[in-house]
Each structure stands twice: as C-alpha cells, then as structure tokens.
Amino acid sequence: MDLHGGSLSTVSTGAQAIPGHSTRDDVFYQFTQQNLPACKPVLTAAVVFEIVDRYLIDCVPEEFRSNKVLKPMKAPIYIYYQLDNYYQNHRRRSNLHLLHGLGCNDTSSCKPLESSHDLPIVPCGLMAWSLFNDTYTFSRNSSELKHVYPFNFQNGTLIGGGKLDPSIPTAPLPTFRKLYGRIEEDLDVDDVIVVHLENNYSTYSFGGKKKLVLSTLSWLGGKNDFLGVANLFVGAFCILISIIFLLLHVKNPR
C-alpha cells in the first residue's frame, strides 16, 4: 500500500486467509480445554436423630423413665432392638422349610430343634428358636400411637411370621440392631414417648444387654460412625506415611 503523493495503491503479498475450525474441531477443542458444560453432585450433610434406651436392668434409671424428644423427628421413624455381647454363631436352619413350609419334612439340618411332639417345627433350627420375642407398646403424651406397625404377625404357633425375616440373617459382630417396626407419625420437640414392654427374651445368662432404638433415616441409612472413623484412621495413616517419606528424603537425598 502506497500513500505517497496522495495516491493509493495495493500490493499483494501472497498471504492466504487461515480457515476457521470446523464444528467437530471446536467440540474437541472445548473438550480438551475442559470448557464443556458439566454438572456434578454435591454431597450435603444428612442429619439422623436417635433415641436409645437400655432396659435390661432391675430398676430403670430416672433419666430413662420419661425421655423427651430433643429434635423433631419426621416419619417414618424406625424402631430397632439392639443386642450387645450377643454372638449369633449358630446357623442351623432349613432353607427348604423357609421356602416350602409344611410341604418339607426333612429337618436333619435343624438338630437339635427339628421337631416338637413328633411334628416338624416350621421353621426349624436354632436360628428360628432364638427369635427375639420382646414386645413393645408405644404411647405419646399419654395417648396411644395409632400408626405403629410392628414387623410381628405371629399367631402363637410355630409357623413364624414377619418378625422372623430380619432375625434370620446372622450378625457379624456381637453388637447389632434388628428392625422391629416403624412409626408413621411425626414426633415433635418435648414429646414424651412412653414404652410399655414385655421382657420375654432372656439375656441374663450370658451378660447380654438389650436396648430400644428409635431412629430416623437419611439417604445414606441410619446413624453409623464407621465411615467417619474409617476416614480419620486412613487420613492419620496417610499423614504418618508422608512424614516417614519426608524424613527418609531429608536423610537420604538424591
């Protein structure tokens, strides 16, 4: 381009225009540069409230006689019984009995509790015979809770019932909880929950403890300290290993 003398002329330099990226190249470029729109889940803290009472003692302490609800508990509220120092070592039972009931008379795998009065026990075995049979009746502020659904449909026979289902799987640890029922009503702050219980299941002979638990649930389940404790131990172990490697690096540099 010449601007001398007021004239304007154009000089070609032979340069060519650079073609733009295609749509496919643009998408790949955005992907490699992590510019694509994305979403990720954000974990939020979940709150679980529990009421735990131990009742296997001769005289129930005063603080356990009229426990109040300290935080609002939204339905459904699950009822558990907890056993401590209880080892479920015996797995004697008959799966055929659980599947076919009275249609199966083979009780050889259930000894020594395979029959009663020359008739097969259904379900048979030590697992079914050690069925937890304490019963609970709940009331709130002197009025009976109408919407309590116990998982117990026994009719007094040896056939079993809905309460047998959670008791059959053996617990891996001596302290465990099994589901008893649920409450389909919200509990408010300062509500007094009165439990009338029938102490049928004896744990005195082996020093066991029985507790009644009322708990809400989150999407992660009930209250469980294992995950938090495990994370603390793993974090402490990683810090310890890091310190060891740091000292080794300082002592023996490359």
UniProtKB/TrEMBL annotation:
Keyword Transmembrane listed: yes
One Pfam family matching this protein: CDC50
GO cellular component terms, semicolon-separated: endoplasmic reticulum; Golgi apparatus; plasma membrane
Keyword vocabulary terms for this entry: Membrane, Transmembrane, Transmembrane helix
TM regions (residue ranges): 226-248
Subcellular location as annotated: Membrane
InterPro entries: CDC50/LEM3_fam
Statement: the UniProt record of this protein carries the keyword Transmembrane: yes
Similarity section: Belongs to the CDC50/LEM3 family.
PANTHER family linked to this entry: ALA-INTERACTING SUBUNIT 2-RELATED, CELL CYCLE CONTROL PROTEIN 50
Protein name (Swiss-Prot/TrEMBL): ALA-interacting subunit
